Amino acid sequence: MNLTLLYPKYTELRKANPEFARKTVLTLYENTGSISKVAKLLKTTRKTVRNIIKRFKELKEEGLKDLSRRPKKSPNKTPPHLELAIASVRKKTGYGRDRIVRVLKEKGIEVKPSTVRYVLKRYGLQGRYKRSKYRKRQRFYDFDALYPLSHFEVDLKEIYDTGTLSEECISHASKVNIPPYQWTAIDVKTRLRFLSYSYEKSFTNGLIFMLSLIYFLRALGIDHEITLQTDNGEEFGGKSVDKLDYLNRMIFKPLNAKLIHIPKGRKEYNAFVERSHQTDDNEFYIPQLELCKDLKEFLFRAIRWQWVYNTIRFHSSLNTTPYKKLLEYYKLPKKIALFPVMILDKMVNILDVFFPKKDEYYVLTKDLFIFGFF
After folding, report:
1. What is the CATH number of the domain that holds 168?
2. Which end of the chain is less packed: N or C, by CB atoms within 10 Å?
C-alpha cells in the first residue's frame, strides 16, 4: 500500500494550521527516523523537514509557532529619536504630514513626507477620514481669471467661543477687556487677510470695517473694482434686497466697489474666511490669548499675528506665503500686510471721512448709521 496517499501535502496542512503541520512532521520523524521518508510522505522537501527539526531542538514548543519575518538589520529604518519627534509634533499641533515636515525642517531636521506618513500610521496617529458633506466638490471661483485684491470674503468671528477656548481663557480675556468680535477680510486669490475688532456686533462697525479696507487698498494704488462677499447677517446689511441695492448704489459704487451676499445657509461659499478662523483659534487665540496682560498687548499680538499670517506663515494651498503670492502679480510694499488693527467702536468719527460734511445727503446717511436707524 502506498503510504503517501494517507497523508495530505505539508503545504495544505500548514495552510490550515501551521503548528499542527509542524507537529505532524516531528511525529513522523520520531516514528521513521528518516528525513527523506518524512519529506516523501508529506510531499515536501528535506530542507523543510530539517529546518522544522532544527527549530524544535533550539526553541522547543516556541519553535512550532510562526516566527517573525522582520529582518535582523534594517539600514533604512527611521531612527527612534526621529519617530518620537514626528509623533510629538503631531500630538502637540495635530498637523498633517506636510506641515510636520516644514516644522521639523525649521528645527534643522530633514524628513520626507512619506516617512512622516509611515510613522504616523505605526503610532496610530492618523487623522480620521471626514466624509464631505457635499458629495460633489464645487468651485465657486474662476481662479485663472480672478485678479489679486479684487474679491474678498468678509465675515465676523466670535472670539469668546466656549467650544474652542477654555472657561479660564475666556474669563481672562473678559477681565482685560479684549474685544469679543473679530472682523476678517480675506483675498481669495492671494489669501492676504485683514483684521479688526469690536465690542459690539453692529452694522455701523461692519460698514466702517469694509470702508476702511477699501480706502486702505486705494491708498496703496489699487484702483480696480473690489468685491466684498459676506453672509446675510445684519452686520453686513441683512437680508433686505432693497437695502443691499441702496448700499451698492449710494456707498460702494462711487468707490468702485460692490457688496454681495452669499445664498442663505450656504457657508461653503465663504469657505476661505471660515477656514481661516480655525487657524486663528489654533495658532493665535489658544496659545496667546491668556498671555495678554491688557488690551494694548492684545492689539500688539493681533497685528503681529496678521503680519505673520500674511508674510511668514507658509500656506499649503499656495505653496508659498500670501505676500509672495501677491508679488507674482503686484510689486507692492510689505506694508500691505499691515492693515491697521482697529477697535471699530471707537472709529465712529471716521465716518466724517467717508461722508463729507459738505454733502447734506451723506450727512443724513451717516447720522442714520450712527443712531441705528439703518
Report:
1. 3.30.420.10
2. N
**Distance of alpha carbon 132 from alpha carbon 331, whole angstroms:** 38
Cβ–Cβ < 8 Å for 111, 119: no
Give residue-wise pLDDT tens across range 7-50.
Answer: 788 888 888 888 888 988 888 888 888 999 888 888 899 999 99
Whether residue 141 contacts residue 188, with contact meaning beta carbons closer than 8 Å, is answered with yes
From the number of C-beta atoms within 10 Å of its C-beta (0-12, 13-18, 19+), residue 149 rates as buried
Is residue 201 included in any domain, yes or no? yes
**One domain, residues 230 and 353:** yes
Q: Does residue 336 contact residue 220 with C-beta atoms inside 8 Å?
A: yes
Instruction: Name the grid cell of 161.
Output: 467661543
Sheet of strand 181-187, all strands in order from the earlier edge strand to the far edge: 193-198, 181-187, 151-158, 226-230, 257-261
Domain identity same for 203 and 295: yes
Q: C-alpha cell of 235?
A: 452686520
pTM (2 d.p.): 0.70
**Please, which residues bridge with residue 151 across strands?**
227
Residue 28 and residue 41 in contact, taking contact as beta carbons nearer than 8 Å: yes
**Residue 26 shares a structural domain with residue 90:** no
